[in-house]
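Q: What would this complex look like in 3D?
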Amino acid sequence: MQKYSRNSRISAITKLLIENPNKIMSLNYFSEILNAAKSTISEDILVIREVLESLEMGRVETIAGATGGVRFIAAMGEKEEKAFKTGLCEMLRDRSRIVPGNFLYITDIMLDPTIVHRAGVVLASKFAKSKADYVITVETKGIPLAYEVARYLGVPLIVARKNSKVTEGTSVTINYVSGTTGRLQNMGLAKRTLKSSSKCLFIDDFLRAGGTVNGIADLLNEFDSELIGIGVLVDNKEVTKKLPTPYTSLVDYHGVNAEGEVIVEGSTN
Amino acid sequence: MQKYSRNSRISAITKLLIENPNKIMSLNYFSEILNAAKSTISEDILVIREVLESLEMGRVETIAGATGGVRFIAAMGEKEEKAFKTGLCEMLRDRSRIVPGNFLYITDIMLDPTIVHRAGVVLASKFAKSKADYVITVETKGIPLAYEVARYLGVPLIVARKNSKVTEGTSVTINYVSGTTGRLQNMGLAKRTLKSSSKCLFIDDFLRAGGTVNGIADLLNEFDSELIGIGVLVDNKEVTKKLPTPYTSLVDYHGVNAEGEVIVEGSTN
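A: Here is my prediction, written as structure tokens for the whole assembly.
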């Protein structure tokens, strides 16, 4: 079997760690793939840990014990995070984003992998210690971002549906008042989706008064489960919120002013 | 400014390449971040290219010229792809997946990042040379997979909506016959979603007779754009297809037999 140089092993281990965020990977696993002693792999990982830390590209943690190993925790440096938020604000200030009804068009942003990917790193890093079992969102626009956060936290995603589907079996459905439309809506989750006594993080594109969030909390209650955190891309600061748990956001939105300018700034929460 | 060892640079460059799939990254970019000469970076990249190729973990391509640089192309080795498909089939054979109406419950699979991530690599690698401008899907279940394919191809995602939304401005809507329900449905895309004359790949969870695919092709026509490829996780082999363009899938589904067994096998297309 082929032997690899330290350089080569470091490249391969970096790739495997980064592609399996928040998953504990045993030294044996790397040892087998790369045909090298565990002590050698250990030294390789030390190099990776140091450079990623020095460049603020995330953390490599060691977990001791029989089921131990190493895992990669995604994170973004403070300076890069600030620049990313500033860039987001610049995009959002484009007046052509204002659509009839004074809504802000952000679908393109929520579907652009280069943005969603980085937004996912930022939100996941805020919840790195949350011990969430699932990330939950409601269809449709927040799904890619929620998926990225779930991927970085190494947990499955759950999507509450606005119309229960024939292909999902028995569902639990609840009513809630949507902040966008002011109307009574319903959303549901297939019964088999969720283990009971789960801790869930809610991720979405836009946070307004919290109608949807409270709906999600109620829905999770029906599964004896709990909403433990909220993360969104844009926080609408124009409305007073009533939320069951604290939240974090990337951008604060203060509406459109008399000159027709979109007022946004990077969030500091 | 700090200097880094070759080992350290290789770890950092590997991470940056892998996190920006199919994006051309200039040597200058790495040179600045890592405070090293371009010739040194070039040698680092050679090591990365060789080990990733040797371990069948994807390709690093060099693009010559003024706008040149290197890019990472995601790919999975033949053996790993086969094992991944076999694992998928085992999951699908679980009889509790059969829900009333003889549908197969695959929502959990379509929302599990560890599976979607790898399925995304496989599908993206089949379309690596397609020069697609966008990946398109229709809400809801296929969104994470379509997002991953878009991310690996370095293009934006588009999601056709079954109900046009107030926050998206003017939409184009078309009618189509859904293969699942046999009913006339409609789906739409906001006018601002798509540049005209675009080439699009359709990615979804399940492919049946092709009603949805033909609807997508019609919708793209309205934007003077073209459907150039189709990729799905599960191909339902029970129905005759009428498709506007060839497709690729990961798993072939042959229905449920008289003993109530789910008949699936890895696709070979």
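A: To summarize the key features: The two ends of chain B are 51 Å apart (CA to CA). Chain B touches chain A through 63 residues (CB under 8 Å).
Q: Very helpful, thank you.
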